[in-house]
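for the recovery benchmark. tokens below, seq after
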């Protein structure tokens, strides 16, 4: 039940560093102009993030603009345009699994279970140094993320390194992670139950939340 608890959680690891920019001075981008209705959405979404502890008020000299992206169901997705920040970020070379290698590894298994992390990035604590670089503004306040935000260039590599470490020896034996998805695979039903029990215990101890 804890794994599927809808309450937002931050996993039990040290804060992560994902935005190394060397000695580059802070980048400030003005917010994009938007309608009153869109401004209201920005304020509402920001309030939700604040209540969940995923952002905090900021005095950072860094700032990236908010963008609202229309989803298929006509609602708006709250995003930050980190393109200028990404351009000066030193890229993390940690590898993502190759899809063909994943399929090859899964080919002999009979039983499969896939887990999807609930807002996986938002479960990863961010270092204080990095928090300032994630800053953004609404019409009446300035904020920064306390967790790994969507849209930063090193997000996938940071999350992949983290989940590989957490899976430990199980990785590439009966559990595979591709960023924020985990697949457990086994040849027999009995093995699969044992593998599921082990991986669920690992994720529970780390305080992950799953969909």
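predicted aa per position
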């Amino acid at each position: 039940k804890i794994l599927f608890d809808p309450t937002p959680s931050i996993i039990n690891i040290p804060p992560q560093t994902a935005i190394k920019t060397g000695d580059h001075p802070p980048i400030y981008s003005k917010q994009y102009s938007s309608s009153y209705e869109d401004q209201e959405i920005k304020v509402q979404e920001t309030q939700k993030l604040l209540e969940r502890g995923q952002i905090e008020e900021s005095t950072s000299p860094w700032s990236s603009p908010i963008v609202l992206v229309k989803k298929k169901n006509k609602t708006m997705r709250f995003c930050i345009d980190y393109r200028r920040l990404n351009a000066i970020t030193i890229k993390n070379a940690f590898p993502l699994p190759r899809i063909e290698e994943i399929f090859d590894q899964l080919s002999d298994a009979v039983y499969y279970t896939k887990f999807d992390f609930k807002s996986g990035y938002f479960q990863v604590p961010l270092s204080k140094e990095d928090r300032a670089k994630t800053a953004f503004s609404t019409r009446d306040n300035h904020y920064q993320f306390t967790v790994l935000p969507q849209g930063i260039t090193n997000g996938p590599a940071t999350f992949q390194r983290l989940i590989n470490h957490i899976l430990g020896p199980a990785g590439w034996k009966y559990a595979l992670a591709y960023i924020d998805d985990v697949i457990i695979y086994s040849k027999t039903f009995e093995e699969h139950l044992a593998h599921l029990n082990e991986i669920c215990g690992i994720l529970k101890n780390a305080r992950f939340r799953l969909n």
